[in-house]
Design goal:
The complex is a heterodimer of chains A (183) and B (435).
Chain A lengths: L2 H14 L5 H22 L8 H19 L8 H11 L6 H21 L7 E2 L1 H29 L6 H17 L5
Helix pairs in contact in A: 2-3, 2-4, 2-5, 3-4, 5-6
Chain B lengths: L3 E2 L1 H20 L3 H22 L10 E4 L3 E3 L3 E7 L5 E5 L6 E4 L4 E5 L1 E8 L3 E5 L2 E6 L5 E7 L2 E6 L21 E6 L5 E6 L11 H7 L3 E9 L2 E6 L18 H18 L3 E6 L7 E4 L1 H13 L22 E6 L4 H12 L3 E6 L27 H21 L4 E3 L7 H12 L7
Parallel strand pairs in B: 3-12, 16-17, 16-19, 19-20, 20-21
Antiparallel strand pairs in B: 1-11, 2-4, 4-8, 5-7, 5-10, 6-8, 9-12, 10-11, 13-15, 14-15, 17-18
Helix pairs in contact in B: 1-2, 4-5
The chains are: A mainly alpha (183), B alpha+beta (435).
Chain lengths: 183, 435
């Protein structure tokens, strides 16, 4: 087998990368960095490969991220945030601040990947599109902040077991409202 | 357009819902904070959709092209409009002779997107199909549609010829060219004695008072002429592979030369017609003025380059003697050469504009110098074959020159000047009668 036969397809793939627009590089890189930041924050004081569990989690997030980086519209994009959420379940001690930081990092990653999916790989976002997206994200941040404050305040109040029923009903209602019925 | 939820909405709903559910089930309120931002993202996108009334359908994209007809190198704007607050992405496919801005032809904007297309080659250009994707500002819902392609006419760039407007044999009754016939005009031919019938306002009073006899100014008449442009579109010879990228083909050169010559003579007030041997353009009847230029450039731009149908060669049976006939041809077809002979036999003043790409038929290969293409020397001997063909063509060129047909290679606006000057000089030179 000639060396050229091996290198030519690789070179072609690398040349294809020239078509990827700066906007897409920026959005996808921002998404990847934010996800890794969320992972690092979720792992807390541990390193990304501190123990087997951490390494497994890092591997899972990296695999999901790799797929999402290549195809931001993929359903596999659910893998990285789910793995991070599940890793937090296993941790006994989780401060409100760390949970909020993970949440904000996940939101950034999620938003930029969602925006990236509205463009082809060579697509460019005009300044008007950036303004529109930032304008639309402001209510999201405001609602997150408000919701977070409510959670922090209510967490100090001791509520009865009946709240579990109301909470479950609310969660089911929210899921019914938000989850898309057809795609 | 019916919008559908995206993978991002599913992601936000699942992560937000799961964090809420785990928080409730495990009694750990801090877990809600992990999914709260994504839950808020999904709620805001849903609320925006309901408030904007986009549950059933999003605004239909409207396409508008700023100019349906542009010149070679000109730019037209492709405008796609939906509604304010809708993230609109328009994507045009790449085309070999089309430059797009942004470079890869895809742009997203707020309710309105403007792409620019610049045409590098004449002809009928198909812009599209245009892919339009509309999404809400967060990318939670989207819809897409392909808009059908639109035709844009690219008229060949007609450079201003750097050539004299004199023609060898003016044959009209009025116009810009000086004829050798005396009559009403502005150019002085001689001062002669007054004859009955001469106009009084032409009396030369100075000469009359000096000579004590009435003298009058005689003038040359001014005439227009008929310019016939014969185009050879039988074959489109591409430039050699080793030529610079973007070099014109023989058809490009023919069309550009035709446009430039027509513009030159129409500006001088002459009547110009086009006869196409290869059926690609179709005949353009004789006419003058800016309207004729428009008709002609439109006809040239309609010439389809992708049509590979071989049609019979058209022949021009007769031509008015003295018609200035410019034949734009790569001089490869026997039919064209025969047609030149017919035109000369009918008494037309024929000039041949050679439109064979100069890179074709480099004879250095015959002297043993290989011409590599992409670093490889072809074993199919195409360069050698074309070199032989050019040498064969040289013979035709020589024979035509010997028959009194001037041939000039099309090298841009200054190509015709020496030929036209020499033709005019040859016509006005004294002739020796042959016995």
């Amino acid at each position: 087998m000639r060396l050229g036969q091996l290198l030519d397809p690789l070179a072609e793939h690398l040349l294809e990368l020239r078509k990827v627009s700066r906007t897409q590089w920026l959005l996808r890189a921002l998404g990847a960095v934010a996800t890794l930041l969320a992972l690092a924050t979720a792992l807390g004081g541990f390193g990304l490969f501190a123990h087997f569990g951490a390494a497994l989690l890092t591997g899972t997030v990296a695999a999901g991220l790799l797929v999402q980086f290549r195809s931001p519209d993929s359903d596999v994009g659910l893998l990285a945030p789910s793995a991070i959420l599940l890793s937090l379940l296993g941790q006994g001690e989780l401060s409100f601040l760390r949970a909020a930081a993970v949440g904000i990092a996940l939101l950034i990653a999620h938003s930029v990947f969602a925006l990236s999916a509205t463009l082809p790989v060579h697509g460019v976002l005009a300044p008007s599109a950036w303004r529109l997206t930032i304008r639309a994200l402001l209510p999201v941040l405001a609602l997150s902040l408000l919701g977070g404050l409510v959670v922090v305040v209510l967490s100090q109040v001791a509520l009865g077991p009946w709240m579990l029923v109301i909470g479950t009903v609310a969660a089911i209602a929210l899921s019914l409202i938000l989850l898309p019925r057809s795609r | 357009m019916r919008t559908r939820p995206t993978a991002a909405l599913v992601r936000a709903a699942v992560i937000g819902g799961a964090s809420l559910a785990f928080s409730l089930a495990l009694g750990r309120p801090e877990l809600i904070l992990v999914g709260m931002p994504m839950l808020a993202w999904a709620l805001v996108s849903l609320a925006r959709r309901i408030l904007r009334g986009e549950e059933l359908a999003a605004a239909d994209p409207q396409l508008r092209i700023s100019r349906r007809s542009i010149e070679e190198g000109g730019t037209a704007a492709v405008l796609v409009r939906t509604a304010p607050g809708v993230l609109t992405t328009a994507t045009l496919p790449m085309h070999p002779h089309l430059d797009l801005a942004p470079r890869h032809g895809s742009l997203a904007g707020d309710g309105e997107v403007q792409l620019r297309v610049s045409a590098q080659r004449w002809g009928q250009l198909r812009v599209g199909p245009l892919h339009v994707l509309v999404a809400d500002a967060l990318g939670a819902y989207r819809a897409q549609r392909n808009l059908p392609p639109t035709e844009v006419q690219v008229v060949p760039a007609s450079t201003v010829l750097d050539a004299p407007v004199e023609v060898p044999t003016p044959i009209g009754v009025s116009g810009a060219h000086l004829s050798r016939r005396r009559g009403d005009g502005t150019a002085l031919s001689e001062v002669r004695t007054f004859r009955p019938g001469d106009r009084l306002h032409r009396i030369n009073w100075r000469v009359s008072s000096r000579t004590r006899e009435l003298h009058t100014n005689a003038t040359f008449t001014e005439q227009d002429t008929e310019v016939l442009i014969v185009t050879d579109t039988i074959a489109d010879v591409a430039p050699a592979p080793w030529a610079a990228a973007g070099d014109p083909t023989s058809l490009d050169m023919t069309i550009r030369a035709t446009a430039a010559i027509a513009r030159h003579y129409l500006a001088a007030g002459d009547r110009v017609s086009v006869f196409d041997i290869g059926h690609l353009i179709g005949p353009v009847r004789s006419g003058s003025g800016p309207r004729q230029l428009r008709v002609l450039t439109t006809a040239l731009s309609r010439a389809s380059r992708d049509d590979n149908i071989l049609r019979p060669v058209r022949r021009l049976r007769s031509v008015r003697p003295g018609t200035l006939t410019v034949v734009c041809t790569p001089l490869l077809s026997r039919d064209t050469i025969a047609q030149i002979g017919v035109l000369v036999a009918h008494g037309a003043d024929v000039i041949v504009v050679d439109t064979l790409p100069p890179s074709i038929g480099d004879v250095s290969v015959l002297r043993g110098k290989p011409l590599p293409v992409d670093g490889k020397v072809s074993h199919r001997f195409w360069p050698e074959a074309w070199a032989m063909r050019r040498l064969l063509r040289e013979r035709t060129v020589r024979e035509l020159r010997e028959a009194g047909v001037p041939i000039t290679a099309w090298e841009g606006p200054s190509s015709l000047a020496p030929v036209l000057l020499s033709l005019s000089a040859a016509r006005s030179a004294p002739r020796r009668r042959r016995s």
